[in-house]
TrEMBL record:
GO function term, MF aspect, one: cytosine transmembrane transporter activity
Classification via PANTHER family: CYTOSINE PERMEASE, CYTOSINE TRANSPORTER CODB
GO cellular component terms, A-Z: plasma membrane
One family name in Pfam for this protein: Transp_cyt_pur
Protein name stated in the entry: Cytosine transport protein
């Protein structure tokens, strides 16, 4: 595996995390709380816990998580693995349900049941896991590294550079409401086109770091399309 591919896998995971972070951080009371929530999770989760895990894995000579936890922490370690897996899956299911309902609601103009969507996605995830999707984890991570970064690129350009609908968002935020459909476009075709172009660049152009290429291209294309409107 090349350095670019490895970087794409890592970047893809981080960007997916960044995209779904608002689902959790919306409960924070201020921007400072959001910052410290993210900073502490990266500092503790990525550097400390993963650093210790790497040292233990090298000491035991294995990359099997269950074996590592059993040898280092016994039954407590095994319980920790089970509980952490439940929590991670719970968070992912929460975010995927929210986004799927938002997408279907925007397209069909219908309101779907949160409980039903959660059950359907949970069953789908369980089926894919039982079918052996983890055997293709590397391919999935590489694909995520070029499919999701363009979304982040569009969001960054839209919010920080173009500041689209900023006045409407500020006004509705003060009222504790969301903008209605008449104030904002139902489908952002410029964003969709930019994401497609960014993804294609990440997939077919093998230079540099694909995830970085896709996010930059998507951002630039989106900016150009919006300026021509």
């Amino acid at each position: 595996m090349s350095l670019g591919e490895a970087s794409t896998m890592v970047a893809g995971l981080y960007i997916i995390g960044a995209l779904i972070t608002p689902d959790i951080s919306r409960y924070c009371k201020s921007g400072k709380h959001v910052f410290w929530m993210i900073f502490s999770s990266i500092l503790v989760g990525e550097f400390l816990i993963n650093g210790v895990a790497i040292l233990v894995a090298h000491a035991l000579g294995t990359d099997n998580v269950v074996e590592i936890m059993l040898h280092s922490a016994g039954i407590i370690g095994l319980i920790t693995i089970i509980l952490s897996a439940i929590k991670v899956n719970d968070t992912n299911l929460y975010s995927s349900s929210l986004h799927m309902l938002g997408f279907l609601g925007s397209v069909t103009k219908r309101k779907f049941s949160y409980a039903t969507m959660t059950i359907v996605l949970g069953l789908l995830g369980t089926f894919l896991s039982a079918a052996g999707i983890l055997e293709h984890l590397t391919a999935f991570l590489l694909a995520s590294g070029v499919f999701f970064p363009p979304i982040a690129g569009v969001m960054l350009v839209d919010y920080y550079i173009l500041k689209t609908s900023r006045k409407i968002l500020d006004e509705t935020r003060e009222k504790g409401l969301l903008p209605d459909d008449s104030q904002t476009p139902l489908i952002g075709w410029s964003a969709i086109i930019a994401c497609i172009v960014g993804t294609l660049v990440g997939v077919f152009f093998n230079f540099g770091i694909p995830s970085l290429n896709s996010i930059l291209v998507a951002g630039v294309v989106y900016w150009l399309l919006m300026k021509k409107r």
